[in-house]
Amino acid sequence: MTRTMKVAAVAQPGAPLEIVEREVPRAGAGQVVVKVQACGICHSDSLTVDGTWPGIEYPRVPGHEIAGVIEEIGEGVVGWEAGQRVGVGWYGGHCGHCDRCRRGDLVLCENGMVPGVSYDGGYAEYVQVPAQTLARIPESLADVDAAPLLCAGITTFNALRNSGVRPGEVVAVLGLGGLGHLAVQYAAKLGFETVAIARGQEKGDYARELGAHHYIDSTAENVAERLTALGGAKIVLATVTSGKAMSDAFGGLAVDGKMMVLGIADSPIEINSAQAIMGRRSVQGWPSGVAADSEDTLAFSARSGVRPQIEVYPLEKAAEAYARMLSGQARFRVVLQP
Amino acid sequence: MTRTMKVAAVAQPGAPLEIVEREVPRAGAGQVVVKVQACGICHSDSLTVDGTWPGIEYPRVPGHEIAGVIEEIGEGVVGWEAGQRVGVGWYGGHCGHCDRCRRGDLVLCENGMVPGVSYDGGYAEYVQVPAQTLARIPESLADVDAAPLLCAGITTFNALRNSGVRPGEVVAVLGLGGLGHLAVQYAAKLGFETVAIARGQEKGDYARELGAHHYIDSTAENVAERLTALGGAKIVLATVTSGKAMSDAFGGLAVDGKMMVLGIADSPIEINSAQAIMGRRSVQGWPSGVAADSEDTLAFSARSGVRPQIEVYPLEKAAEAYARMLSGQARFRVVLQP
Amino acid sequence: MTRTMKVAAVAQPGAPLEIVEREVPRAGAGQVVVKVQACGICHSDSLTVDGTWPGIEYPRVPGHEIAGVIEEIGEGVVGWEAGQRVGVGWYGGHCGHCDRCRRGDLVLCENGMVPGVSYDGGYAEYVQVPAQTLARIPESLADVDAAPLLCAGITTFNALRNSGVRPGEVVAVLGLGGLGHLAVQYAAKLGFETVAIARGQEKGDYARELGAHHYIDSTAENVAERLTALGGAKIVLATVTSGKAMSDAFGGLAVDGKMMVLGIADSPIEINSAQAIMGRRSVQGWPSGVAADSEDTLAFSARSGVRPQIEVYPLEKAAEAYARMLSGQARFRVVLQP
Amino acid sequence: MTRTMKVAAVAQPGAPLEIVEREVPRAGAGQVVVKVQACGICHSDSLTVDGTWPGIEYPRVPGHEIAGVIEEIGEGVVGWEAGQRVGVGWYGGHCGHCDRCRRGDLVLCENGMVPGVSYDGGYAEYVQVPAQTLARIPESLADVDAAPLLCAGITTFNALRNSGVRPGEVVAVLGLGGLGHLAVQYAAKLGFETVAIARGQEKGDYARELGAHHYIDSTAENVAERLTALGGAKIVLATVTSGKAMSDAFGGLAVDGKMMVLGIADSPIEINSAQAIMGRRSVQGWPSGVAADSEDTLAFSARSGVRPQIEVYPLEKAAEAYARMLSGQARFRVVLQP
Ligand SMILES: [Zn+2]
Ligand SMILES: [Zn+2]
Ligand SMILES: [Zn+2]
Ligand SMILES: [Zn+2]
Ligand SMILES: [Zn+2]
Ligand SMILES: [Zn+2]
Ligand SMILES: [Zn+2]
Ligand SMILES: [Zn+2]
């Protein structure tokens, strides 16, 4: 006898999210089935909904910010057991045999998979994922809070800790949305002198509530000049999609400062070579992280009290929730609950 | 007309600290005279009192944890003015022409000076120091609190931030004395998972008050095993003088973990090569820092609330205060006030 | 119909190497069978011969310096084909699910395997190994030359390139045996100012032939003093097994210098804390590398002309060849040819 | 009685270089007078000739690639003596009191001086410079060869060694002019797999003579694609002034690859964020180095045989030599000899 479940699927590129019935998957070799308790809606889910990611097979269930409980364990899976609370993020498995994998650089696997893109994701009551993708969720972290940390959280936390920044230095967060409102919390809880940069004066108070020591309204102030007046930012975490905003902030880096680029920009980032040379300034891209990085992110979040600000919708209202995310009005992450 | 001041001087190696009258120094070229508001007593002052540092000229006034106000500025000094609050630590000036100086490695200058050793130090109402040695003291930091941060504080803060540790990792502090009680605070305020290691169960509560998440009583527990059970320490800040205690803790390092050695040990540190190899573990020494590092230390301490626990004595009781420091009973730094 | 092959096996701990007939293995899932063309004899093979590595199942065929040709490919193996020239070293496969593996630190897998220890190794005409373990051998590199590079070569090359050394600095190689005579060549070909350190004056000429710019006879000279006179070594590659020799060399490190420990020492390495602190000097262990590291080692060796000095024996004389290695008289690596 | 000397001076911005008679300077405090044996002509000398560097006092003698012999030593100078062979490059002294200097970052001194810009430079028979600026010239290095190494040489050598590149990796040099023809030699002598990139097929043979393993003609081939086919460049040393050429090469970086920007570009460098993120690729500026860096550059050049290709002119023909440099036809550095 097979069990059925509800999922929110996209029938073809551009089609709406529809609730459909499916068989609950059975865990294949190396795989686990997770009972989904919460799944964040990420702007990247539009890659699946719109079909802009090449080679997606439809119908497809989006969702790569999954928090749940292990339901079933496939053959050959070691180290996990049914009932454990686990999360899955953008990293959806590596191949093990490409050059990147052979060097242990699992996050840049040339054949890397993404939940909700390469296989059905977390807009569902159950999801099947490779065991490699699992991150333990600490007891004190609620499912709806853990979900966005598995993509927006890890991306900022992991970029920051791998940026080469030294403890106590000045960290600026460019953008105060889904990623930025987490990045500001991480920077503050990690003891950095934290600068939030966003559009509009009204976000200043919120930034300070999140722990920012300084706020820059990029619509009214010269970002580079303000940062320079603060001594310059050793790290700018660029969480926006505006290439121009990134280019404008580059001049606000301190000597030896680095801009970490976390999101695909709508235009090239323009680097002034004199500014780069006369301060050994740099720009580097950073691609999220693997399951163990998520685990570290969740552990730190649990320990330090970092939490996303979320709006929760039932799975049945996936289409509405997705539209809410797209509207840019959500504060700041939308989460589905089956 | 010359002014006079009181100092606590050592007439010859091994002689007691005596209060004597001196002329207030006038600032020479490149020098400033500082009116001392507080001066910490450091165990290293025994190098002067006992004469174990080679080549000291006596009588000598000890003291290299100086907080005060600029009184007079010598010829050619740029960037400072009378009335500024400043501190001076172990770094007492560099030569500018040795190989280390030519490479910008000022703290390891081959002709480096130390206040209270190379010239008269801070057990005094006034002290003359090279302008290079000055660190700005933030307004919110009291003189008696700033003084110990200029040696015990900077040594731990600067070692930690230059250790290569990544934000959020496990940092263990070996020893809970003058350096250790500050190191624990820094580690905790910087968001590290902080482990304090000391002798005796009774210090556990205090360690937790300082922010430690874990406490290990090295008289009752196996330090390496306990650290390993916590996942291993990425950094061990070794603030003790026992070579054996350091050797014992080495096995508690995480993979890629590093022990930072901050103090001269009473015996060699013994490294187990298999433990080193099978985890890429390492041991490195760290020599305090220059004035700009002190400035960063003071700024972070002011911003985050890190403060030393001190016992204050008037300058007149320098001998008594020094004996108190030597007794090992002080909690944790003794500070003189002129 | 099954094929048979000759192997040199150890029947039980302490037993002699005996030539026995075996079935040629068939490649299991994820495995390949390699026709062995050459296999180096490493001192670590004594772990198998003497049974000092825990948990070895006997009879066991030693050998982890394998150069050969892919004979057969198992199910699920991607990226390899029969006829390719490949090598296998100390790294014999990782589990994929332990904490180290999840972080991409494959060489320190908690369940890591070693050819000739965990499964039958290269003292044989054919060997079955996990596909993960394979490194491509460049065309210009002979099998008998490639074999020792897969253990002695990669260990030194990989440690050196990951030591943090900057191009052109002073690199000292402590020991001039199997590892050391390769390390000297790598250091010289990589443009480092290369210092060889060994016992006896007579090795000086050979060291210079290998590319060393300086030679120190540790039986007649003070190693630390000589290194210091050369400006200090930024890196000491410690290829010896004498803990005392390593301890003696520590004082010859330059400021910011590091000793890389490559082999298990017969006694603890003793670190003088004052030397460590007053130069930020350090000691770190390094554990070889994975197949991709071997591939880089072989590629660089082929391109730059680095070759081991070897003595070749037929597989039938494995016992004699092993004794030769043990004698310490071989110059410098003994290689078996089936 | 005063001695006189010939210099080639610029009377005002835009004026021609004219040979005029001057008094030989006497060494002031902290200064030395150097008898010039050779002085390279650098494109940056146009900052003085054209007056595009702000605040230059005229008449001014250009020249910051000075090789000579110490003639006279000023008061307070330690560590140098008359008769020593010394060189001076772009770094012309630091202030000692700005924030950068206090942190030992002497090359980025906020009040840094440049010979031939801040004071009279090396187009002269004698020049007075701060003692800080002196680099020892190895015996085996001719003056005319040392001169260009003090600017074009150090800039490439120092950028390369501080780029974080690991020994043996792929290094690409973008541009094959004054800097590039030295960078290719350094990369090759340091054991890197070296790629030269320039305009036109005809430079390929020369690149290979300099040690390049690969040559890319950027007028006929897609630079990023060719580099990617070689596995990607871990480091691109960008020695050109074309922002477009740099932007085009960015896509040819390997995973974790970095472009080091050494020269002011004529337009912003455009970074594709997706390429940056999906390979952790980065761009960083690098500003030459101090006297000790020059000393290391000269020592390595002497030891390894790196030499500039030069055209030598007598000082009297400074105007002609300068025009030759400007023409872009010189191969590759023009050097004046008094
Ligand atoms: Zn996402
Ligand atoms: Zn892969
Ligand atoms: Zn002290
Ligand atoms: Zn010095
Ligand atoms: Zn071996
Ligand atoms: Zn493993
Ligand atoms: Zn120049
Ligand atoms: Zn300066």
UniProtKB/TrEMBL annotation, chains A, B, C, D:
<dbReference type="InterPro" id="IPR036291">
    <property type="entry name" value="NAD(P)-bd_dom_sf"/>
</dbReference>
<comment type="similarity">
    <text>Belongs to the zinc-containing alcohol dehydrogenase family.</text>
</comment>
<dbReference type="InterPro" id="IPR002328">
    <property type="entry name" value="ADH_Zn_CS"/>
</dbReference>
<dbReference type="GO" id="GO:0005737">
    <property type="term" value="C:cytoplasm"/>
</dbReference>
<feature type="domain" description="Enoyl reductase (ER)">
    <location>
        <begin position="14"/>
        <end position="336"/>
    </location>
</feature>
<keyword id="KW-0520">NAD</keyword>
<dbReference type="GO" id="GO:0004022">
    <property type="term" value="F:alcohol dehydrogenase (NAD+) activity"/>
</dbReference>
<dbReference type="InterPro" id="IPR020843">
    <property type="entry name" value="ER"/>
</dbReference>
<keyword id="KW-0862">Zinc</keyword>
<dbReference type="InterPro" id="IPR013154">
    <property type="entry name" value="ADH-like_N"/>
</dbReference>
<dbReference type="Pfam" id="PF00107">
    <property type="entry name" value="ADH_zinc_N"/>
</dbReference>
<dbReference type="InterPro" id="IPR013149">
    <property type="entry name" value="ADH-like_C"/>
</dbReference>
<protein>
    <submittedName>
        <fullName>Alcohol dehydrogenase GroES-like protein</fullName>
    </submittedName>
</protein>
<dbReference type="InterPro" id="IPR011032">
    <property type="entry name" value="GroES-like_sf"/>
</dbReference>
<keyword id="KW-0479">Metal-binding</keyword>
<keyword id="KW-0560">Oxidoreductase</keyword>
<dbReference type="GO" id="GO:0008270">
    <property type="term" value="F:zinc ion binding"/>
</dbReference>
<dbReference type="Pfam" id="PF08240">
    <property type="entry name" value="ADH_N"/>
</dbReference>
